[in-house]
Amino acid sequence: MKNYYQPEIETMSREDMIKLQNEKLVKQVKHVYDHVPYYRERMDAKGVKPEDIKGIDDLHKLPFLCKDDLRDAYPYGLLAVPLSDCVRIQSTSGTTGKRVVAFYTQHDIDLWEECCARAIVAAGGTKDDVCQVCYGYGLFTGGPGLNGGSHKVGCLTLPMSSGNTDRQIQFMMDLGATILCCTPSYAAYIGESLRDAGYKPEDNKLRAGIFGAEPWTEEMRKDIERLLGIKAYDIYGLTETSGPGVSFECEEQTGMHICEDHFYPEIIDPDTGEVLPDGSEGELVFTSLDKEAFPLLRYRTRDICVLSREKCSCGRTLVKMSKPRGRTDDMLIIRGVNVFPSQIETVLMERGYSSNYLIIVDRVNNTDTFDINVEMLPEQFSDTVRVITQRERELTDALRTMLGITAKVHLVAPKSIQRSEGKAVRVLDKRKLH
Ligand code: DLL
What we know:
By secondary structure, the chain is an alpha/beta fold. It has 2 domains: about 5-15 and about 70-330, Rossmann fold (3-Layer(aba) Sandwich), CATH 3.40.50; about 335-430, ANL, C-terminal domain (GMP Synthetase, Chain A, domain 3). The chain has 12 helices and 19 strands. The protein binds 5'-O-[hydroxy(phenylacetyl)phosphoryl]adenosine.
């Protein structure tokens, strides 16, 4: 017996899905044009009127939207309903430190939580499950999204948030958690901590995990499955579109089904913007089809992946996307947190350091390490060890405030960071995730 949260949608015929998408798109474009001057100006500049969009075949006529547009429009510029109709914001870091703020009406929250509920049910979840959510709660979408989905399914929800691993393990064992939701790196860490505490995989009641928000490999999946004795499912999403649940894995574990009744995907050539056929690798672009507060038309995610419409043995007809294979920009995801090198540079420059720095990211025992070597100026180099340590601490604090995570800062001797003859290499990502 297959389980679906919304079988009428998840197994809908292609013909009916296209009809639904066409109807929703026409309404969404009109809503956006009527209520968001930013979009109206962009569409007018391209000579496109809402009447020109009769369905998804006309989507290519619309301009793209990218992260910089979100920054320009910060905070209210893309809002499509009165603020009094909004009930929540969520947020994530932006390219230059300005955050991306997404707004939600109650309808938008319901829609988002339903997507997360689909993911939980696809992982075998029912109302009899105990679902431990250890994604961060707060501005990050992970905790609130999976929490809402878990409620919709009717699971007993443990709203743990991330961190405090001893407490996570205590609740997991005492309350018999059956589903674990967190980043894959945290799942691996929890698994190792359980093992170190003397537990065997069969000692816990976990059956499934729903892991996402950062890239992870098939090898890591196997590690986590073995450590915890579970089946590990991938989940994808981004704050701009709502959060987790834009797509999710089923038991076939060969890509993530996109909730395409809400988010219409396109794959484009990142250089030319040309729409590519299914099966081609390119940048993933999403158009929301029924969001109220913060609709997105042709939003460029910067994630590189492939779409596939091959029949899936789970019976879902929703198109599948591959795991993201990289990004078109320089965004790093470290311990689930989005980090742009430009944010780090801003902090360094503001404090009088030069642009000679090197960010080193690695994954040791399934946990990301994050080091930044920063060159001292000659006059700083003569300082005592005590002063240098103090400076490192100040930089670490300033970076934590900007990024939301802690980096190990090392002040190094002047001229010790290798200079480049071409483009400066400021990031050394040793994780080999793609
Ligand atoms: O990471 C939303 C989320 C929360 C997804 C919990 C899944 C689980 P942002 O912080 O805005 O939102 O980061 C979005 O993270 O563009 C991808 O580059 C990356 N990402 C998200 N899920 C995956 C995944 C959340 N399963 C950015 N695999 C996206 C690889 C992922 N990368």
